[in-house]
Amino acid sequence: MDYYLGLDIGGSSIKYGLEDAEGQLILFSSIPLRERSLAEFRAITRDILHICQSYTLDGAIAAIGIGSPGQIDHRRGIIIGNNPNLPFWTMISPTAIMPEDLDLKVVFDNDANLMALGEASHYPAGHNVLGVTIGSGIGCGFCIGGKVFGGSRGYAMELGHITSIIDGAACNCGRYGCLEAYSSLNGMRNRLCEIGYKANDWNFVQLLQAAELDKEVKAILDKGIELFSLALANLMIILEPDHLVIGGGASEIPLYPVQELIDKIQSLLPPELTDISIDLAKQGNKAGVLGAIRLARG
Asked: Can you name the residues that pair with 7 across neighbouring β-strands?
């Protein structure tokens, strides 16, 4: 029997899942990073492959899919740009985590693209699904008829790096005025530090709690929500998906104003598009792994 392995690389762990030929997820787990290095990525991948051996005694892994943070240049097959949480993870192929003697099909894509692909399985075949994640950064992917749209170079759907404010705040990518510099956790923390707050280490819960008590923090949050809703509404007008799916760490926090975000998006859409469904992600932290498996299946 053929099996398909999906890996989802994160800043603190690597999640993985194994699916059989019939599409049944028979294993899902994660291994935390002890350190952030390529050697650690390779060691964890070896451990995962070893674990999977006991689940594939009646067959073998036919293909592996990898979801990776960062921007991927598919023409060259490498990750490009800055990766602040994993500074070593650039100008390298995601396949570098695999053992050199591994003789298997290995495919990869951006983790947000694969989140969208994983969530697309909840909708009727042929439906176009726009997926967005909000957390420390902003990710976005678009699936057309069950296939990831990556553009001509793989850079498409980098919603976090559209220019929201000309000559605006510095972004971790090296540019200025990006949506991520205002609407992501990292961006909002940076904006708060600029006005004197010691917010470098705040998590999203702490930021949201502070926004309930402090008008200046609330103003930063409101601006982030406003720009995020505007970007999503404009993207929906351009792409006209059947569904928008909102995921990521922030969307799972009760204090995050998800309904306010949805209401703002809908208020910015023309009447012809207000019937596009806007849903919270259903797969949770499994979405990236499931998308990687779907990619491996081809």
From this structure: 16, 66
Our count of domains for the chain comes to 2
121 Cβ partners below 8 Å, 6+ apart?
290, 294
Asked if 148 and 298 count as a contact pair (C-beta separation under 8 A), the reply is no
Would you say 26 and 20 are in contact if contact means Cβ atoms under 8 Å apart?
yes
In the prediction, which pLDDT does 83 show?
80
**Distant-in-sequence, close-in-space partners of 73: CB < 8 Å, separation ≥ 6:** 79, 80, 153, 154, 155
Maximum distance among all alpha carbons in the chain? 61
The pLDDT mean for the chain works out to 94
Identify the H or E element spanning 190.
helix 185-194
Residue 252 is part of a domain; what is its CATH number? 3.30.420.40
Q: What is the pTM of this model?
A: 0.90
Same domain, 131 and 274: yes
